């Protein structure tokens, strides 16, 4: 692998983590498309160079082409799905305690919806690591009759036709039943993380 290819991998990793944690949802489709185009161009360049060197192909050329092609496929396939799923698992474990603390603060009403629209959104302070992607705010849904709450932490806010994805805490029985049904219907996209915690994909 050449130095340029190594730098490309590092830049791609930075983009992938930034895309997952920081980039606003309305920027994500454009950044994704830009990276796909760049990687496609670089892949084509590597193929052309490989063809020109067909009588004396170097190992580095094959490695460079393979790495570039792999990065392109990982990025292009289902809008960065594979890298995002890997980072999502890391994110769940790294921020586990912090999310549980936020849940405790919401349940004790230290944290409440705090946006002018009064739509259940609570903006959190922008600390690292980000707890809720695409803006670091959470969505609080309250069942006043039952005294229960559902708290949604964004994994992905979706773009184009993509649904939104969340880490969700809920102690509401009806909501839990709804999520259990979603898990049965689409287990590849929805699953229970632990008691009261779910990973759910929704179309709003």
Structure write-up:
With about 200 residues, this protein is an alpha+beta fold. It has 2 domains: about 5-80; about 95-200, no CATH class. The protein is built from 6 helices and 6 strands. The protein has a 6-stranded antiparallel β-sheet, sandwiched between helices. Strand 5 (about 190-195) and strand 6 form a beta hairpin. The radius of gyration is 21 Å and the shape is elongated. The termini are far apart.
Short description:
By secondary structure, the protein is of the alpha+beta class.
Structural Rg:
21 Å
Overall, the morphology is elongated
Residue-averaged pLDDT, rounded? Answer: 92
Tally of discrete structural domains:
2
- Main sheet specs: 6 strands, antiparallel
**Helix fraction bin:** 40-55%
Low-confidence segments, ≥5 residues, pLDDT <50? none
Spell the H/E element sequence. Answer: HHHHHEEEEHEE
The structure class reads: alpha+beta
Strand order of the largest sheet: 1-2-3-4-6-5
In whole angstroms, how far apart are the ends? 44 Å
Q: Number of helical segments?
A: 6
Keywords: Membrane, Transmembrane, Transmembrane helix
Transmembrane segments: 7-23, 29-48, 60-79
């Amino acid at each position: 692998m050449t130095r340029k290819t190594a730098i490309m991998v590092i830049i791609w990793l930075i983009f992938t983590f930034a895309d997952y944690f920081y980039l606003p949802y309305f920027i994500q489709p454009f950044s994704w498309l830009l990276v796909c185009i760049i990687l496609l161009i670089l892949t084509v360049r590597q193929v052309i160079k490989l063809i020109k060197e067909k009588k004396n192909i170097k190992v580095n050329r094959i490695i460079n082409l393979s790495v570039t092609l792999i990065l392109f496929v990982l990025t292009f396939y289902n809008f960065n799905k594979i890298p995002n799923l890997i980072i999502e698992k890391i994110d769940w474990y790294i921020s586990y305690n912090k999310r549980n603390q936020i849940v405790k603060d919401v349940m004790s009403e230290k944290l409440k919806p705090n946006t002018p629209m009064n739509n259940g959104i609570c903006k959190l302070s922008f600390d690292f690591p980000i707890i809720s992607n695409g803006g670091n705010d959470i969505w609080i849904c309250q069942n006043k009759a039952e005294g229960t709450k559902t708290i949604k932490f964004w994994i992905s806010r979706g773009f184009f036709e993509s649904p939104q994805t969340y880490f969700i805490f809920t102690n509401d029985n009806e909501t839990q039943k709804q999520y259990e049904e979603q898990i049965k219907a689409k287990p590849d996209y929805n699953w229970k993380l632990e008691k009261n915690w779910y990973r759910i994909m929704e179309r709003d």
